[in-house]
Design goal:
The structure holds 2 protein chains of 2 kinds. Chain A is an alpha+beta fold. Chain A has 2 helices and 5 strands. Classes of the chains: A alpha+beta, B alpha+beta.
């Protein structure tokens, strides 16, 4: 599963994209992905907000994520 | 009804104004967001924008459709720039045209306020000695 990062999360991870390999404990919902990332990258837990997009639409905490989904991490937006 | 939604390198307000002109419109309202030189008394050298373009265009479309459903509009434009922008340069432009001015004024405000809240675009403020992702931290 590929995960895309933007803005400050790209700086925190040090990459625009990472691949989560098939393994036990791989996140299966938006909520579990967020806690997985915040544990792996403690700086991510310090952000004002952290949203997740699944297939380029805002997802809910209980939205499932599958291997073929395009998953993106959306830190606080600041356009305009 | 013409709807123009795009992510661009450079914003040209003249072109956008021309795209908003419509024979049934008695008014065109345009908002242009620009780079301000000071944030909390610190001098800003420039802003750098990035986006998740595929999703940004979808979110822009939702905003435009909501405005079209809410007000009687002839044209709607939402355009945002990416890359580095210097002081006074335009970074975003939204506009609407309608038969009478109340509709386009209200729609224009809605377009920019909603864009700022939902469209996945990020801005980094560049100062002389540091750069900061805007709104990232509480």
């Amino acid at each position: 599963m590929d995960i895309l990062f933007f803005g400050i999360t790209k700086d925190i991870v040090g990459a625009a994209q990472i691949q989560l390999l098939e393994e036990k404990g791989k996140p299966t919902t938006v909520a579990s992905l967020k806690s997985f990332l915040c544990q792996k990258y403690p700086e991510m837990a310090k952000l004002s907000s952290l949203a997740v997009a699944v297939n380029s639409a805002y997802a809910q905490e209980d939205t499932p994520i599958n291997n073929n989904d395009e998953v993106a991490i959306i830190p606080p937006v600041s356009g305009g | 009804m013409i709807k123009i939604l795009s992510i661009v390198d450079t914003i040209d307000p003249g072109t956008v104004y021309a795209a908003l002109a419509h024979p049934k419109s008695g008014g065109i309202c345009v908002f242009v967001g620009t780079v301000r030189e000071f944030t909390d008394e610190q001098q800003v050298v420039g802003l750098e924008f990035e986006t998740y373009e595929k999703m940004a265009l979808k979110e822009m479309d939702k905003i435009a459709e909501e405005a079209i459903a809410k007000w009687q509009l002839n044209n709607v434009v939402i355009q945002h720039a990416v890359g580095k922008k210097g002081v006074m340069e335009p970074v975003v432009i939204v506009g609407a045209s309608s038969a009478h001015r109340p509709e386009c004024f209200e729609a224009c405000r809605f377009l920019i306020d909603t864009l700022k809240a939902t469209v996945p675009i990020w801005k980094k403020e560049m100062f002389k000695d540091k750069s900061v992702w805007v709104s990232a931290h509480p």
